[in-house]
Amino acid sequence: MVEAPGRSRGESVLAILVRDLVREERTGEASLEARAVGVITTAGTLVTVLFGLALLVTGRAGFVLPVGARGLLAGALASLVAASVAAIFVNLPTGHREINARDLLNRISSDDDWNAQRDDVERAVAKVLAVQLVAGREVNRRKARLLARAIFAEVAGVAFIGASVAVILATSAQ
Fold it and tell me: Which residues fall within 8 angstroms of residue 160, CB to CB, at 6 or more apart?
């Protein structure tokens, strides 16, 4: 962090720190949302593969899908749908607490605020940004938990697909 020119007190350092942290939190949110889109994409692909597998295997004359494979395929489908739904929720717009434009206009229009000491203004801005930081972190915690659940559900879906293929192959070999 670089201290503002001509300043020797801590307020400008704190204001810069809070701004940087808010920026990092917003970048983290964008990263979580991008990962969630990846989960949606791979889950959709895996569901397509799952249905392709089911069509390929069940399309053979006289083939009966083993009971064990049915449950595993159903578990795979449920897991992959759950992964997609959780990832979609990660991307829902959230109500970040942003600086209210009307309040900002009122402060700019107020002679008391406009003519205030720089230290007082920096403190007021830092407080507003700190409120944004707290809200942003809470939103990102919720999104990270949902993303983790989506990834775990996707892993479970892959495991179910693998197990169902193993059961089908074992049954077909007999």
Answer: 72, 73, 75, 76, 79
Asked if 125 and 133 touch (Cβ cutoff 8 Å), the reply is: no
Domain ranges within the chain, ordered by starting residue: 11-172
Tokens 């402060």 sit on residue: 107
Q: How many CB atoms lie within 10 A of CB 4?
A: 14
DSSP state of 65: -
Q: What is the pLDDT of residues 119-153, one digit of tens each?
A: 788 888 888 888 888 888 998 999 999 999 999 99
**Residue 137 to residue 65: CA distance in whole angstroms:** 48
Is there a contact between 90 and 150 (Cβ–Cβ < 8 Å)?
yes
* Beta carbons within 10 angstroms of residue 160's beta carbon: 23
